[in-house]
Amino acid sequence: MSDSLNASDVPRPAGPAHGRPGEPSPHVPGVSVRRTRAKGEPRFPDGPRADPAGSHFERRIRSFQPRRSRVTAGQADALQRLWSKWGLDIDGQEAIDLAEMFGNTDRVVLEIGFGMGEATVRMAAADPGTNILAVDVHTPGQGHLLNLAEQQGLSNVRVGNGDAIILLREMLRPDSLDGLRVYFPDPWPKKRHHKRRLIQPEFLDLVATRVRPGGIVHCATDWEPYAEQMLEVLSAHPAFENTQADGGFAPRPDFRPLTRFEGQGLEKGHVVNDLLFRRVQHRNQPPTGA
Fold this sequence. Notes:
The protein is of the alpha/beta class. The chain has helices spanning 73-86, 98-102, 118-126, 139-151, 164-171, 201-210, 224-236, 260-267; strands at residues 87-89, 107-112, 130-136, 157-161, 177-183, 211-221, 240-242, 273-279. α1 packs across α4 (139-151). It is globular. The termini are far apart.
C-alpha cells in the first residue's frame, strides 16, 4: 500500500521553519508523502472513514472494488481540511436532508463513480444551478475532487464515501433526486462476474424510488457488451423510458465532458455509448401540475 505519508520523500526547508524535534514536518503541496501509521490509526483523522457502514448491513455482492493507490500531499490536505464541510461518510444510519447539505433547494443529481473528479467539476462549473452528490470509494479521487472544487470556488459539489446502494436505500428520501449519472462503471467483463455489474433490474427498482418523475438516468460505457445489457435492462423496466425515439443509444450530450481517458479510448477505436432514460410518472399519480 502506498497511500500513507512519508516525510523523508519531501524536500525540507532550511532553518527554524522545519520545526522542532518531535513535531511533524510540513509537507510540500503536490508531493506524495509517506509516514508510518500506528496500528488502528485512521489514514485521515478528519477525513473519510475506511469503512463507514461497517458490518451494520447484510453482506452482498458489490459492484465495486476499493483500489489502494498513492495519495498525494495535496489530496491528503484537501481531505483533512474539507471533508467535514463537503464530505459524507455513507454509514446508513440516518436519512440526510439534501437541502440542508447543499444549503439550497436546487435540483440534485447523484453521480456514482467519479474517478478523479475532473468531469464532475466541469459539469458542476457549467451548471451551478444543479447540485452534484458524487460518490466513490477511491480515496485519491475523493481528495482530488475536493481540491479541484475548492480551487474553482464551487459550492454545488459534495463527495460521498462508501456504498451507493446503502446511500440510496438507507439515506436518501423518496423522490429526492433529479437524476442519476453512472459514467464508465466497472464492466466486469468475465461472464462469471456479470452479477457484479451495477445496472441490474434490482438496482433500477431502488433508483425508481429515489429519482422523481421526469428525472434522467444517464449511463455511459465504452464496453459494448455492457452497453447492450444496460439498454436491455433499462428498456425492460416499467419505471423508465428511453429518451431516444428509436429506442437505441443517445448521442453524447453536451453536458457530459469528453474526458482524457475517454479520448484515449476513442483514439484506439473504442465505441462509447450513452443511454438517457427518463423516470416515468408513478402509477396512480396525477401528472405534475395537474
